[in-house]
Each structure stands twice: as structure tokens, then as C-alpha cells.
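From the pipeline queue, job 12 of 40. The input is one protein chain; the requested action is below.

Action: predict structure.
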Amino acid sequence: MHCAALGYPRGAMDGGTIAATWFAGSAVASLACTGAVRAALVRLAVLDHANERSSHVGSVPRGGGAVFAALSIAGWAWLGVSGPAGAGSLPWQLMVAGTGVAAVGIVDDARGLPASVRLAVHLASGAMVAWAWGPLPVLEIGGMTASAPLALAVLAVLAVAWSINLTNFMDGIDGIAASHSVVVLGFLGAAFHLSGDGALAAAAAVTCGGALGFLAWNLSRRWRIFMGDGGSGFLGFAIAAFSVAAWSTEALGPWQCLAVSGTFVADATVTLARRGIRREALAQAHRSHAYQHLSRRWASHRSVAALFVAVDLLWCVPLAVAAGAWPPWAPVLAALAVGVPALAAWRLGAGQD
């Protein structure tokens, strides 16, 4: 990893202990609060009813993602004011953008919003992230470098908007989006800790813990709950925002950030491209992602979610680490991290009904 061990002030609590405390506290709070929210959603009949485009059966309460989104934003706000162990604070743009993404998703779940409104908020959130952590370091591709600040800022804006939407696309079976987010946010948090940025390490940890607490309910056979667009969009935003922050602070290189999210980038991109080639309505709900084909073939959501986590841990994370160890090879390693899952997604029929 591109990590400079900057250390912490003498006598201050160890940065890893701080991040672990935030992680554990958020996980416990999310576990408890999600249960309470689920009971309220059932009483209010806020339910996701199965239809021909669904990958689930029956009616399941939705909107649980508001819990970890609220916990995360509250934690980020506190860190933005104080920062742990004197290691700095968080930009206010992170809280504002995260709140906007979560809010537009919650409203869309409740009453529906035009795609243009959602996209405008997603792009605005990306612009705030680029503003908070710009100008970005040069992007190296082989022997060439891209250093135009405006071009890199536009790239960051598009990356944030794409991450929000692809995470929403991939949140179609139990456990897959939350478990993937735990892996990616854990990796980003570890990178921030190793680089000495206690505030960002704790911020990633609080979101990672919140997703883990929700995951326990999401995987429950009897007490299942869905995160909804507010939750999935927020997790996609958090992953992208912290990836841009890691690139900006040089805790990680951009190719590492791409590599660690390889499975989701691959499935969502192949599915969208294939449907676009056939001129299908890209905003229309469907069941043609690779993970959806696989869940029907295996008749199991948990097994598919476990497979994606295994690929994340055994393929994408090692390649992301290797990309940091051998920077000249980083683009190739990132291409492998995304390309092999993309080939698998294509073979599984991603983008085809």
C-alpha cells in the first residue's frame, strides 16, 4: 500500500484501538437499532412485495439502511469536529453529500423520484467529494501520467455517481451488498490506519460496523429486512468517497481502490453494457445480473453472497495489495481484479434475461 507510517501523538490512544472502538460501537448500535426499526416498519406496513422482477418471495420490510446511514453521518459529524488522537478531522462536505444521497434514496423508496433528480443529487455528491479532497494526485497509466486537475475532478465525480448506482444495482439478494461493503470499507479503513490518518480510519470503521450490524438482520431467515435505496446508495457513496480520500491522501493508489471493488464493478458494468447494446431500458428493474442468475441456479442467496465475499478476499484484496507493492503493474493488476470477474459474469449471462 502507499502508506507512510506517520504515527500518533505520544500518550494518545493507539489509532487502531480508536478505529476498532468505532467499528464495534457502530456494529452493536446498528444491530440494536435495526431491530427496532424493523418492528416499526412492520407496524407501518413499509414492505417490499415480491413481483416477477424480484429475487425474493413474500413481503419484507425495507428501509433498514437508514440506520447505518444515520449512525455513519452522526459519527462523521463528531469526527469532523474533533478527530481522534489529534490526527485531523473530516471535511464537512462528506457529511452533507452523504446525507443528500441517503435522503434521496429514502424518498425514492417512499414515493418515487424521477431518475434525473436522483442523478443530479448523485453528481452533486460526487462534486462535493472532489471539492473536499482535490486536487487529486496524478493518475499513472503505464508510462503515461494524467495530471489535469479538472479532468481528474470530473473522473472523481463520475466514479462517485457510478459507485452509488452500481451498489444499488447489486443490492438484489440478501447479504451481498452489505457483506461486500464490509470487506471494502474494512480494507480502506486499514489503509487509512497504516497511513496514520486516524479520522478517516475511524470514519470508515463506523460505516463498516454499521453495515455489519445490519447484515445480521439482512441474512436472518425469520427477521429479514432490506436496506432499500437509501442504504445501498449510501454504501456506494461511502465506498467511493473514501476511495477518493485514499487516493488524495496517498493512503492507496487509485488502481488499488478500483481493484478492491472488482466484483461489483464487473457484474454491474457487464450487465449494463449488455443491456445497453440490446437497447433495453437501463432504469427498468430486472433480474439479469450474474449474481441473480447464480442465486436462481443455486436457489440460495447466502451461498452467492458468500461466493462474492470469497472472491473479494481471495482475489480482489490480494491484487489490490499487490498493486500497491508494485506501482508500475498497478493498472494491469486492477484490470485482472475486474476483468476475471467480468469474464465470469459474462459467462453466467449477466445482462440477459
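Job complete. Residues 1-13 have pLDDT under 50 and may be disordered.
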